[in-house]
Amino acid sequence: MAQDATVPKLNFEYWLDKAIEWGQATTLESQKDVCLHLPQLQEFLHQLYETIKHSGSTVAIQQFPLIGQLLGRLCWNPFVIGYDESQKTLMWCLCCLYSSEPQNSVELKANSWIRSLLCHLLSSSKWESNEAETGAFISALGYTSADYYCHLVKNMVVSLVTELRENQFNGLNIQGSISASHVNAVSIFCVPLITLPDLTPLLETLLLYHGGSSKEILSSEFLEAVNEAFLKKKISLSQSAVFSLWLRHLPSLEKATLHLLDQLFSIQLNSLEEVACVMKDSLLPQASCHPAIFRIVNEIFKNALMETDGTSGVTTIIQVFTQLFLQAHQNENKQHKFPLKAYFPYHHQPLVRGLVRRPFELPPTYWSQHLKHISDMLKALVEDGNVSSLTDLFEIWVLVACFGEWLDIAAEQLLKAAVEPDAVLWLLAFYYCPKNENQQRTQTMVEAQAVYSHLMMLFSCTDLSLKDLEPVVHRITGIEQCWNQCLTTHLLTNFLLFSPGGHKIAQQCIYHITKTTDTSKEVYNLLIRTAYRFNHSGEENQRIVKLLNELLQQRTLKV
């Protein structure tokens, strides 16, 4: 059919011949040909409507004597009426042929025929007879909503679904009466009809169909079109169908992940509950229970971290995603649950197990001990020569970043509980400064210890002023190294939240440091993470919750 690629835009005879050749598209060859010509046909129908819309029915029929035969045939071709705006254009072409004042029996008969076609088009689509554009015309005809529904597409779907399911795996024996080429053809035919609600059972059956071939049997155009429609919420699919789509078509999974990140970056999110809601709606955390999907999504997140230099916004998004993935993994049926090593195959497994344990799974009195255990394992990996390259170091840092909930717990426990400060401070120092070139991490550790010592001297004070915190604030405003600035900001913000006197000067202090430094996003993300944890941990502290809400309204944080 390649020679037909450049037909004239208004070659009426060409399209009439095509319509006669296609019929109702009941053969494999005719269906393929229809799908290949749909964009050109839609362009022709637009041109035809522009040509006849002001001419009146008599002039239109004089200009195109066989226009009724062409439109009538196209209206009964399910592939044509299911494609984009072709159905709408066919309706307006038919309206142009309707005689408002029929003069003879021929025009009366033509009007009756047009009414029946309009009824068919309206009853087999998402359009309703009360739609503004078509309702007035139908009412003028004295016609009511259709009393019947065209079963052509529905019957075709039922037939194909039954055929595919009967030929699906039966134990280890495959019933091989359907060829891979036939299934591929069916997937191609679905492309222009994907958004039709009646087609959903067939879409899902195709996505879940595996005919025993080592190669993908569904067309890439079909897989891309289904993914696009799903991401734009034009269709609704079962979770199993969506997961199967992403497992069998890597570009669709990559596009879905990037689409999620674009969503989260493009909207103003006021809480991590909103972030979690958008993520769950995407189905990606649930789909990531399959290790192959998890590793691809995780790789894309790692690239996002690299491109943004690990900004707090990106790490916060990844931390929430990881928490939702762990929830989904825990809810998996034990018989189908993959071991953790399947998701983190190249990492030190004791460290993985330590990070994976959620804080709420342990008594708060055990948190300090667990943090020391994590810190000791991490320090042994990083400083005892087991890390041979910056790439290995980055992989370890990403793992820690994914489970950043423990980092927030660490900064909090430093102030609230009896901990071994050096171990916990080292954990935070590693997160904010993973590389130790030119003793960077060592210097960060020294800075953190000084800040921690000063804050602990003030922790029990109930009457504090901003002047009391000047040495710490100066370390934030006067530090050029962003890692030291971020770590000090983390410690100070927790001090303001959890110390008896900190809440009195919290707004003033945070306003000062976010106005004079580039730390507003760091503070904002820390606050919404803390609020999210308090909302889901069962911890009751009305003072802290109230303070968090007040701080999140801070003008300097709205950037």
List the SSEs and their pairings.
Blueprint: H1 12-22, H2 28-52, H3 57-63, H4 67-75, H5 78-81, H6 86-97, H7 105-123, H8 132-140, H9 152-166, E1 169-170, E2 173-174, H10 180-190, H11 200-207, H12 220-231, H13 239-248, H14 250-266, H15 272-282, H16 284-287, H17 291-307, H18 312-331, H19 349-356, H20 367-383, H21 390-402, H22 405-416, H23 421-432, H24 440-458, H25 470-477, H26 482-498, H27 502-516, H28 520-537, H29 542-552
Helix pairs in contact: 1-2, 1-4, 2-6, 4-6, 6-7, 9-11, 11-13, 12-14, 13-14, 14-15, 14-17, 15-18, 19-20, 20-23, 22-23, 22-26, 23-24, 24-26, 25-26, 26-27, 26-28, 27-29, 28-29
Describe this entry's structure for a reader.
- This protein has 559 residues and is mainly α.
- Among the domains are: 12-121, no CATH class; 179-248, no CATH class; 251-345; 454-558.
- The protein is 66% helix and 1% strand.
- It contains 29 helices and 2 strands.
- It has helices at 12-22, 28-52, 57-63, 67-75, 78-81, 86-97, 105-123, 132-140, 152-166, 180-190, 200-207, 220-231, 239-248, 250-266, 272-282, 284-287, 291-307, 312-331, 349-356, 367-383, 390-402, 405-416, 421-432, 440-458, 470-477, 482-498, 502-516, 520-537, 542-552, and strands spanning 169-170, 173-174.
- It has a two-stranded antiparallel sheet.
- The relative contact order is 0.04.
- The model is unreliable at 1-9, 126-152 and 170-176 (pLDDT under 50).
What's a quick, concise take on this entry?
The protein is built from 29 helices and 2 strands. With 559 residues, the protein is mainly alpha-helical. It holds the Pfam family Fanconi_C.
